[in-house]
Amino acid sequence: MNYHVLKLFYYVAITGSVTKASERLHISQPAISAQIRKFERENHILLFEIKGKRMVLTPLGKRLIEPLEKFFAMGDQVQQIIEDYHKFPEGNLRIAGNYLATSILIPRWASLFKQSFPEVNIQITTTNSHGVMEKLNNFEADVAIYSDMEFPSHNTGVFEHRELYRDEYVFVVSSQHPYANQQVSFEEVMSEAFIMREEGSAARERLVRLCEERSVQQPTIGLQFNGVNEVIQAVIAGYGISYVSALLAKPYLDQGTLANVAVENVVSKHSIWMGYRKKELQESYMQSFITFVMKQLSLK
């Protein structure tokens, strides 16, 4: 397979013209066009067709874009790993965490680890749990901290996953809300407006599952944020209900700015996990961080 020609095709497709692809790749327009045409002839296919003055993708060409995007992204990651090896000879540790992890757990761990291993460069990325797992599976993160939920295959031939904490989700409202510190039915609480994270967050996925299990209509999402701290602040301000990690809600519940809503017959436990490549695929500094985290947990 001629990957060079596939790269030429890919850049023509995403830029929309041979001219723009030529500028991006620093290859002459005639050379790009000639190599793509030769590839089409050799494989008895057609990737582009001319419509008016525009060159558009054929159905086959469109089908190739997504796998090629992933393929070239992997190549970029390989290049980044090599560059990081030269830039950071002692290690470049990439940690991806969901909002709970990067709000409460990872900052302390990263700070303490950096004091013991100052030569390791640490990069921390925050996204929802689905995004965290994608980064791990795509080798865009070395360590992933996330909440358990229904994920695609964890690729257990390459990765290991370890439970760190057991937590639960709780319904919370402003201390001035009529449901504050009250016991209500699941149907009653679902009739209220909710403030939630975006689709793909573990808490929202769990809430949807609870509704499906009870054949109850999902609540109206009155406000949606991409961060859990924003969700909590909006609830404190007095609008709606939310469903969040008890670990995140605890400081606000202790202060009295948030209040629990006891929902009948709903107990929603969940775990916080750490995922990483198997030991034989890790650099030594990655092993050191994983060992460090487990030691910190054992001290609690």
UniProtKB/TrEMBL annotation:
Pfam families per record? HTH_1 (PF00126), LysR_substrate (PF03466)
Extract the PROSITE patterns matched here.
HTH_LYSR
What keywords is this UniProt entry annotated with?
DNA-binding, Transcription, Transcription regulation
Instruction: Give the source's domain of life in one word.
Output: Bacteria
Q: Indicate yes or no for the key word Phosphoprotein.
A: no
Signal sequence segment: none
- GO molecular function annotation: DNA-binding transcription factor activity; transcription cis-regulatory region binding
Q: Which positions fall inside the HTH lysR-type domain?
A: 1-58
Positions of transmembrane segments: none
List the InterPro entries: LysR_HTH_N, LysR_subst-bd, WH-like_DNA-bd_sf, WH_DNA-bd_sf
PANTHER family, alphabetically?
Answer: HTH-TYPE TRANSCRIPTIONAL REGULATOR (PTHR30126), HTH-TYPE TRANSCRIPTIONAL REGULATOR GLTR (PTHR30126:SF40)
The similarity comment for this entry is: Belongs to the LysR transcriptional regulatory family.
**Official protein name in the record:** HTH lysR-type domain-containing protein
Source species: Paenibacillus odorifer
